[in-house]
């Protein structure tokens, strides 16, 4: 069985060794330890890279692991063969396992499609709420920019002079003599 060190897989996936070990556990990869070095099956580094891309797209590690497991096949650990009669039996068993794996992946893919449909609905709701908020902001700005409504402006007019109050005799004298006319001459 070919193996790759977790540190090498982490470098390939451009993540830390601790993240690679955590993701390997989420993905149920077989981790073997020889001395101070931990190994995972060869080809698992590509699955870790797919996991890193899924997490960078915004998924949580557990959801990303489920999605990666539905899309990618786990590396198959090959056992050593003792003789030719057992070889045929092991091939049949591996074919059965492959078929069962495909069936499980199809089931998981169907549930993932349902989950993705819900994600799309959530994204649509978010976009609609964002557009409504932007529309409200635009209305507020438009109200600020619209010209003010015209108001009736009253210009200043001098008050009419009031006639002085005179007694009856004085009034008659003013009307007959018209002193304003006399002054004008």
Task: Describe the fold and architecture.
By secondary structure, the chain is mainly α. Among the domains are: 1-69, Multidrug-efflux Transporter Regulator, Chain: A, Domain 2 (Orthogonal Bundle), CATH 1.10.1660; 89-140. It has helices spanning 6-13, 17-26, 44-56, 61-71, 84-145, 168-177, 179-184, and strands spanning 3-5, 32-34, 37-41. A three-stranded antiparallel sheet has the order 1-3-2. α1 crosses α2, α1 crosses α3 (44-56) and α4 (61-71) packs across α5 (84-145).
CATH topology-level fold name of the domain at 1-69: Multidrug-efflux Transporter Regulator, Chain: A, Domain 2
Net shape: rod-shaped
Rounded mean pLDDT is: 81
Q: Please count the beta strands (DSSP E, at least 2 residues each).
A: 3
Radius of gyration: 46 Å
In N-to-C order, the SSE pattern is EHHEEHHHHH
Helix vs. strand class: mainly alpha
Tell me what portion of residues adopts beta-strand conformation.
5-15%
Q: How many separate helices?
A: 7
For the biggest sheet, the summary is: 3 strands, antiparallel
């Amino acid at each position: 069985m070919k193996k790759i060190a977790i540190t090498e897989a982490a470098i390939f996936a451009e993540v830390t060794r601790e993240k690679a070990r955590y993701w390997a556990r989420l993905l149920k990869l077989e981790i073997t330890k020889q001395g101070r070095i931990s190994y995972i099956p060869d080809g698992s580094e590509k699955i870790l890279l797919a996991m890193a891309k899924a997490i960078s797209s915004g998924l949580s590690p557990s959801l990303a692991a489920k999605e990666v497991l539905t899309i990618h096949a786990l590396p198959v650990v090959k056992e050593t063969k003792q003789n030719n009669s057992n070889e045929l039996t092991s091939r049949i068993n591996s074919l059965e396992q492959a078929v069962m794996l495909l069936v499980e992946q199809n089931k998981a893919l169907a549930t993932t499609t349902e989950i993705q449909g819900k994600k799309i609905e959530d994204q649509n709701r978010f976009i609609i709420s964002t557009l409504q908020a932007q529309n409200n902001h635009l209305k507020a700005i438009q109200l600020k920019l619209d010209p003010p409504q015209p108001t009736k402006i009253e210009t200043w007019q001098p008050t009419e002079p009031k006639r002085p109050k005179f007694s009856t005799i004085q009034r008659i004298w003013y009307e007959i003599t018209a002193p304003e006319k006399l002054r004008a001459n």
